[in-house]
Amino acid sequence: MASDLISFHGDVRLKAQALKDLVAARKAGLIVQAGDEPGSGGAVRCLMSTSSRHLFTQFAKRFGIPAALACLEDCIFENLPGGDALDWPHEFMSACRPGANLALAEWKFQSQVLTDIRFLPGKFDPRVAAAHEMTVQVVKSLADGAVPSSQLANALAAEKSATRAKLEFDKKGLEMMVAAKTAAWATYGVAEAAADAARQKLPTAGAPEALAASSVYISSTLLATKVAESVSPGEPRNEAWRRMAQLLIRLVK
Predict the structure, then answer these.
(1) What is the pTM of this model?
(2) Statement: residue 209 has pLDDT above 70
(3) Which residue in 107, 76, 129, 112 sits closest to 240, CA to CA?
(4) Which end of the chain has fewer CB atoms at under 10 Å, N or C?
């Protein structure tokens, strides 16, 4: 069951107005990291007149952009350095093409981040590798639009394996390699989301009816945060966030 959301509901005027509102918000100083007032604040909140805890689902209804992507857009905004952060909301909304179905972009983001060594260097640690590989296979199927109900057993197995890997690192704590520990945590978050999607028999994170019943819509933010924590020594964490921002832009175009 795919999401029936299409970007900007196919209306180029809605996109133009959103971009105009973002320009005005920036000039008025209303785009603020860690802001929480309606009509001001983060990449999503500055376009909305509500501070409701359902902010991302309301954003999805207004703009036809899945709540999962809105949540990820906001997470990236909060972690980019100042100047880049201010540019980011306009850059993201500019990249979204009116009429495009972005329902699979969430899973494609997760799939590419999970499989790219630049993003997750700890994935080859033997204590993580098995759980990671199982999770990747399920997420790749979701990114291709496969119906997860046919892979429920695989998704649940990946979740169980990832849980064991995460718990091992939790118990041993700081003595473990940071990259491997964050890989375990990231894999666990994505595996849990994939299993939830499979339970709901929904192939996309953007389906509104899945949001209340699954953790899919937050799994990319967990993954992104853990990836930023596992950057190689000497590499600024900002660069990890910039790479993820660039990846998301490519996926929504």
Answers:
(1) 0.85
(2) no
(3) 76
(4) C
